[in-house]
Amino acid sequence: MKFPVKAVSLSMIAAFAMMGCGKEAPPPPTPAAAPPPPPPLVIKLGHAAPLTGPQAHIGKDNENGARLAVEDANAAKIKFGGRDVKFELMGEDDQADPKQGNLVAQKFVDAKVNAVIGHLNSGTTIPASKVYSDAGIPQVSPSATNPAYTAQGFKTAFRVMANDVQQGKVLGEYAVNNLKAKTVAIIDDKTAYGEGLASEFKKAATAAGVKVVAEEHTDDKAVDFAAILTKVKGKKPDLVFYGGMDPQAAPMAMQMKKLGIKARLLMGDGGCTSEFIKNAADAAEGHYCSLPGIPYEKMPGGPKFIERFKAKYGDIQLYAPYAYDAVMVVVDAVKRAQSADSARILAELPKTDYKGVTTTITFDDKGDIKDGAISLYVAKGGKWEAMDTIGGPPPGPAPAEPLAGMSGMSGMGGMSGMTGPKGMGGMSGMGSMQGMSGMAPAAPAKPAAAAVPAVPAKK
Amino acid sequence: MGDCQPIIPAVDIFLQQIFNGLTLGSIYALVALGYTMVYGIMGLINFAHGEVVMIGALTALATAKALLAAGVPPPLVLLLALLVATLVCMALGAAIERVAYRPLRNAPRLAPLITAIGVSIVLQQVAMLVWGRNYHSVPQLLPAGSYEILGAQITEVQLIIMAVAASTMLGLMQLVNRTRLGRAMRATSESPAIAALMGVDANRIIMLTFVIGSGLGALAGVMVSANYGIAHYHMGFLLGLKAFTAAVLGGIGNLAGAMVGGLLLGIIEALGAGYIGDLTGGVLGSNYQDVFAFFVLIVVLIFRPSGLMGEKVAERA
């Protein structure tokens, strides 16, 4: 560990101090915000997502969403004290790889961006958040849903999508109450997102009385699932849960059909794409997925956004509206701050109350979106058909409570700790986290501690 | 209630895992043959081979889509798509050899290895620009039927893949061992300089080897995309890595070794994923699938450094 916790808290204190006195004088690291008045004030926004590799299509979708938002913000001709404000998007490729994600983060810091939109994956977002926190750069992730992201205590970390505690809980309860599953098999892709979601699902489902008959793992580059699916078939589950993204989910659905598995897939947001339907074709029929938020069509600004996005970039893949809102939340904070200074933007972000395309965005004290809704879909007749929306702006199932619970489990420790019955859960959790553990301060100690009790718990 | 009988495997499940392993193994073998051909002649690991497979798959797909849209009957589409893909890949193979490897023929061995990786990255990015980042679903051109044997499913596509892999290997062995070209290949493999003295045009032979290997890559690409139903610009990377592993396991440079290594790797992966969890009482799960496969590779290489069938140097392609 190169970064002792002390250093983190010091830098946070520094950030606080900056917020405190920000009103009078935007102090030291003030990049583009500085004196010279006439030329337009440029506000640089970094955007990080995988633009190459298996998830490139989803990453590009995010970037397009962000780009549309930047164009809209510039078209609005915002001015501070007579100076034009111009937003610029700096799009970088993090390859969905935690190591690359940190390089990109460092690049943003060096380029003195004023805020960061991203990253797309939890696995890249969590380690990068440490870099942004140290540099005092606000970060709004459109789509990282692993609870650990906002549980690290960084004042710079925000997200505009409900986290996996909320999503996993809804999925687990839905599997039991609505889909009437008695036995489930759980498959994940060993990423921070997939594994995190799967373990939240497992917790909720077992609490609701479901028996987990198989737990299998693949990775986020695999295309062949015949072996694990055959094993799953032998255990005859009522439902197969998959925590992962669509590049795996689509061939998985096809291979399930080939193997004659009757059970349906239940997936989180990563599988909830038009690509899944397109690629799995007739094998997609009848599978379920969930998406944080409400269906695109029912979003406050949904239909209009879809139309505009389509005209420019084609079909929405997955998170484009969230990327759009993430940018707009920052633009909104910039407007209120009347400044390009990161510290001032940061001071405004917690006060966000922004009517976005996806929903009305407000943050809780951790930086999670308040009252995030979760919607469930079923693949029917070649498209995702909305079934139910659970939670959401009107009161909802008290999101404050599971979040408070998370802080006790602190970061990734929570994730590996709760896979106790699997025995090796703690270790596999650590394995997949290794790429990032060097960066996330609370992480390394916790999984180890959690893994110890996990082994006897199995016996 | 799914009763958990951890150790005694059900017959249908076991058989299904064997089928899974054989299919996966045949795919690895088909790609591994391409690696092994080139290595056998010039001792070069052509890391761009995985990307050639990908280009083959995507070219065949693009051709097939165009032809289907023009109303050509499916069996003819398959043949034409395969033909176009093979020709494109052959040309690509020749170009790669000419541009990236021939100028480095006498350079230290590390240099062509680096250009191979470079070519691989370039091909991937070019494919991304041409075909985009999205996954492409592959139209069903091969027969789609499936058979049930003792409760296990096997599809016609899987049977075709196994047959193609086996016959490709046998065909290549005939080519190398029984033909004039094969004799020239073996001579070049032993010593390009002395082969040249005997009147063999070593450059031509090496070029031909690349062309044949890349043509096989196209065939492999079509089979892979037909089996999984999707194609993507990134599909060649992992496949290439696994196939390379299979080639090393079987003894790189040896044609039968590529087949044996591929099948073995496929079956180890399938059985590993299927049974490690139950055999170890849940301590190790299917997340150790790859670990298991590479563990076997390490063990084999410790005891047989040149791979399972690597010692028959005379049979090197």
TrEMBL record, chain A:
Keywords: Signal. Residues 43-370 form the Leucine-binding protein domain. Residues 1-17 form the signal peptide. The keyword Cell membrane does not apply. PROSITE patterns: PROKAR_LIPOPROTEIN. Gene3D superfamilies: 3.40.50.2300. The keyword Signal applies. SUPFAM superfamilies: Periplasmic binding protein-like I (SSF53822). Belongs to the leucine-binding protein family. This is Amino acid/amide ABC transporter substrate-binding protein (HAAT family). It comes from Sulfurisoma sediminicola. The lineage of its organism: Bacteria, Pseudomonadati, Pseudomonadota, Betaproteobacteria, Nitrosomonadales.
From TrEMBL, chain B:
It comes from the Bacteria. CDD domains: TM_PBP1_LivH_like. It is found in: Cell membrane. Its main location: membrane. Pfam families: BPD_transp_2. It is a multi-pass membrane protein. GO terms for molecular function: L-isoleucine transmembrane transporter activity; L-leucine transmembrane transporter activity; L-phenylalanine transmembrane transporter activity; L-valine transmembrane transporter activity. Keywords: Amino-acid transport, Cell inner membrane, Cell membrane, Membrane, Transmembrane, Transmembrane helix, Transport. The keyword RNA-binding does not apply. Coiled coil: none annotated. The chain crosses the membrane at residues 52-70, 76-101, 113-132, 157-176, 205-224, 230-249, 256-276, 288-306. One of its GO terms (biological process) is L-isoleucine import across plasma membrane. One of its GO terms (cellular component) is plasma membrane. PANTHER family: BRANCHED-CHAIN AMINO ACID TRANSPORT SYSTEM PERMEASE PROTEIN LIVH (PTHR11795), HIGH-AFFINITY BRANCHED-CHAIN AMINO ACID TRANSPORT SYSTEM PERMEASE PROTEIN LIVH (PTHR11795:SF371). Belongs to the binding-protein-dependent transport system permease family. LivHM subfamily. This is Amino acid/amide ABC transporter membrane protein 1 (HAAT family).
